[in-house]
Specification:
Number of strands: 14
Strand order of the largest sheet: 1-2-4-3-5-6
CATH class of the largest domain: Alpha Beta
CATH architecture of the largest domain: 3-Layer(aba) Sandwich
CATH topology of the largest domain: Rossmann fold
Order of helices and strands: HEEEEHEHEHHEEEHEHEEHEE
Structural class: alpha/beta
Helix content: 25-40%
Number of domains: 2
Number of helices: 8
């Protein structure tokens, strides 16, 4: 294992110390706990949006805490859920009178701990609603059981924009739900990654082998086989997405081409070009394309393709709203 770390067991906390040191003007932590990650700025009467999840996915999850996006994040260890008390402490720090929306990925540990935090808030008469990202098409035929992966970016954008416009808790939840209903993702891995505390790869792939449909924690995909071209991967991914969420000729979508941690920008743009050509052939119009690292898996090589259908003009306004965090800025 070759990593720029100190003690493997301190990986998450050392990372957080570095973030707070680099961006003291934008973020802080609550209750003396490094893992209670919060914005330095909160607006009275605004719905507070809180996410959370394991380390190893930057900029997901904490990287979206900032202007016109999220207000706080419970930070877990590498590929581990944050504790319910941490989520609760974040909520108490950033809540400003309009209630709390918990918005996170569809994973068992996260669901349990966010639900516990919501119960703790309820005992203090602080209203809290929850929604989970569940965009990974190939993880389950049951949409309610699907994993949340890079497509949660669109939920963050839509909910964050509605909250910034001083929407009510129900309105902010509805914005996130609209994005969820219209977002699908397919991902694929070319290499495994190394969890620092384990010190070795979390799965194995042969030299010319890839995994199609693999999850961001190394969850098995739908097939392992020879590495395919960008054109072939784009076609297979879009075929899966459009079979699950049909999009008519003339409809508009946003495209997210996401790198998993060790894929070059050049390769991501090659994949982006492949996706555009296929959508053009189908008469599906691209409203906006996002290319880069939005939800990674340590140093895993690979990518994911997300499609978010623009259901109405309001969604376009939400997507276009400028945002700024230490990790992501959109003008």
């Amino acid at each position: 294992m070759k990593k720029l770390i100190n003690a493997p067991e301190n990986y998450t906390d050392d990372m957080l110390r570095g973030i707070y040191a680099a961006h003291p003007d934008l973020v802080k932590y609550a209750s003396g706990d490094l893992r209670c990650y919060c914005t330095r700025y909160k607006k009275a009467g605004k719905v507070a949006i809180i996410t959370g999840g394991g380390t190893g996915h930057l900029p997901l999850f904490l990287g979206y805490v900032g202007e016109n996006l999220l207000d706080g994040c419970g930070v877990g260890g590498v590929f581990q859920s944050p504790a319910s008390e941490q989520i609760y402490n974040v909520a108490k720090e950033v809540e400003s009178g309009a209630g709390v929306l918990f918005l996170y990925g569809n994973y068992t540990g996260d669901i349990m701990n966010f639900d516990m935090a919501a119960e703790m808030l309820d005992m203090e008469d602080i209203p809290a609603k929850s929604i989970v990202g569940a965009d990974d098409v190939l993880s389950s035929s049951n949409i309610q059981a699907r994993r949340g992966v890079a497509g949660i970016f669109f939920l963050y954008k839509c909910a964050g924009a509605k909250a910034a416009a001083m929407g009510t808790l129900e309105e902010v939840l509805a914005a996130a739900q609209k994005a969820k209903d219209n977002t699908r993702t397919v991902g694929f891995a070319l290499t495994p990654c190394v969890i620092p505390e384990l010190g070795h790869s979390n799965f194995l792939l042969a030299e010319n082998e890839m995994a199609f449909g693999m999850g961001i924690h190394g969850e098995p995909g739908v097939w392992n086989g020879p590495v395919k071209t960008a054109d072939e991967l784009a076609k297979e991914s879009l075929d899966e997405i459009l079979a699950d969420m049909p999009i008519a000729e003339g409809e508009e979508v946003c495209v997210l081409i996401n790198g998993l941690g060790a894929t070059s920008q050049e390769e991501l743009y090659i994949l982006s070009g492949s996706v555009k050509q296929l959508l053009d052939e189908k008469g599906i119009r691209i409203y906006r394309t996002f290319v880069g690292e939005y939800a990674t898996s340590m140093e895993m090589a690979g990518a994911s393709i997300s499609i978010c259908r623009m259901a109405d003009d309001e969604m376009k306004e939400w997507i276009d709203l400028p945002v700024h965090t230490p990790f992501y800025t959109q003008v």
